[in-house]
Design a protein that fits this description.
Length: about 200
């Protein structure tokens, strides 16, 4: 029997949605099969087991969140302002398409940090040895700020991620529907770089 690429991708996309929404334990093999419009035997034919399918989705999700960083942070043709905006834009675009991604990835990394990071093949020094960190260090010294580059990077990430994973509580507190929340996130697309630049005393 020959594997069909369309069926395989359909199963993966369905599993990705369910795993991101419900996690590994609450997602049953039959749930994935039913949502994909196939039987469990066909799912097992393509991926052998739910665990194997989950591992594939997990690694792809980690790479989706972090792999793009390498290209941005090592681009020597762009200035610090452009890099900050590129990181914020990329994360907002990703999370707009898949709002369950950050919490899913972060919770799994918390549970299995070494295994996931190693298998995802993300270099340990992807940030610390990057041109982006060199630029941050130069600006920090220029501005006379008592802070390290990792604080700046984590601020960018947390300012972008928290409003996404916190949508349920925000919707409750501010009576914010999905469209209003989307508008709110897009406002932050402009505000986050502005806040980071102010912190760095970066004019341009």
């Amino acid at each position: 029997m020959q594997k069909d690429q369309t069926t395989e991708e359909k199963i993966k996309l369905t599993a990705k949605k369910l795993f991101h929404e419900k996690g590994y334990g609450q997602t049953k093999t039959r749930d994935i099969a039913e949502a994909a419009g196939i039987n469990t035997a066909l799912l097992n034919y393509y991926f052998r087991s739910k665990e194997n399918l989950f591992n594939i989705i997990m690694l792809e999700s980690v790479q989706e969140m972090f792999s793009f960083i390498r290209e941005i942070v090592n681009d020597q043709k762009t200035n610090l302002d452009s890099k900050i905006r590129a990181i914020v834009d990329h994360y907002i675009n990703i999370f707009h398409e898949n709002p369950n991604l950050p919490l899913f990835v972060l919770s799994e990394i918390q549970a299995n940090p070494e295994r996931l990071i190693q298998k995802s093949k993300i270099p340990k020094d992807i940030l610390t040895e990057s041109y982006f960190f060199e630029q941050l260090n130069e600006q920090i010294k220029k501005a006379g700020i008592n802070i390290t580059p990792i604080h700046i990077f984590l601020n960018i990430i947390s300012l972008t991620i928290l409003p996404v994973v916190g949508r349920p509580i925000m919707s409750y507190i501010y009576t914010m529907d999905i469209n209003a929340h989307s508008d709110f996130i897009n406002e932050r697309r402009e505000l986050i770089p502005l806040w980071i630049k102010t912190m760095l005393k970066l004019d341009k």
